[in-house]
Amino acid sequence: MSFKVPRGTQDILPGESEKWQKIEGIMRHLCHVYRYPELRTPMFESTELFQRGVGDSTDIVQKEMYTFEDRGGRSLTLRPEGTASISRSYVEHKMYGYADQPVKVSYLGPMFRYERSQKGRYRQFVQFGVEAIGSKDPAVDAEVIELAMRVYQEAGLKHLKLVINSLGDKEVRDAHRDALIAHFEPHIGEFCADCQKRLQQNPLRILDCKVDAANPLIEQAPQLTNYLNEESAAYFDQVKKYLDALGIDYVVDPNLVRGLDYYNHTAFEIMSTAEGFGAITTLCGGGRYNGLVEEIGGPESPGIGFGMSIERLLLALEAEEVALNIENDLDLFIVAMDEDAKLKAVELTSSFRVKGIATEIDYAGRKMKAQMKAADRLNAKYVIVLGGSELEEQAANVKNMETGDQEKVPFHDLVNYLLAHK
Ligand code: ATP
Ligand code: MG
Questions:
Q1: Where are the beta strands (DSSP E) in 24-140?
Q2: What confidence score (pLDDT) does residue 259 get?
């Protein structure tokens, strides 16, 4: 019997996990600077929350959710995205009553979607996202977009493209919806089964279909931009003005629609334009969702946010051949030549670790030479060898592995010496 990770999931091994932590560190730091503290919600929620909050006609709800019945007969679903949970929490904790609006929060954690697994598409993936709920100031839209861009820039990516669009308000979307139905209806037989269902449910989604993407009718479809009413157009102009002021380049793509039902006004995606990135070039998706909080039982509370996976960010780094600056972090390896030395090594190791000096010793009963090799493999910055004479003198040579230099340091001075040099 042999076990493997479930399809679409992966183990992140040491050596690789440092990259994740580095990226997560960038995200956490930016959230601190932009004031988006973390809101942690459960990994599963009632199924109905996602049906309402993501939307019944979306791929996510139709075919990607991990839904199960618990022993109490409740239908629960592993979260496929973050916005619905954050909105639920906003309503449940009456955050709409907070004096400071919008309420700005972030999340970082695994999401689950039953997808056809391929490069950049997993069944469990780690999503970072932010939400700002309770304001429809277009400056917030620009802030959220800027924050998303900053994550990629801080990680070292250069080949980025920001695509934005306006989905308008309800009036705009209704008028556009009618036009789309009229456009596609006579030819709907040419489209996939999903699109045939989408025609009445949510024809906007046809534009986002991955199966029919090449059908010229999609290119020729009535564009939402032409249906924008004055208010929506003015809002979009404001967002663009703020982006200009922030010096953020963007491309307006009238065909950009987001997969989730609840989006309106601003929609955006950040793509990688790096050569060799592969088929899936979207790194981040986000937008405004002014009706969502009402949809799940709260008062009118306009929101905006984005979601991005660490998996795709790492792929983009690979495509651009950007190496994250990950420090070698083993400060010291202590080699012990015999049992007495081992006892002292254990004692010293503990006293160094208490002071924050990353220290390793041998637990495999290896001879001195093999221990030295291990220290080398582990890339230790310093090595101390302990034997009879060191114990006698109560001092040891500290060897700088990079330069080969050695210096004799009394045991009682080792902590200070290493703190000063590591
Ligand atoms: P796609 O069109 O690629 O399926 P989506 O519209 O389903 O994306 P969103 O729901 O908007 O994506 O999710 C936002 C971000 O989350 C994506 O831009 C991507 O970075 C990430 N993401 C979504 N699904 C996956 C997945 N299965 N594996 C890895 N990352 C994912
Ligand atoms: Mg998807």
A1: 44-46, 67-69, 75-78, 103-112, 124-133
A2: 59
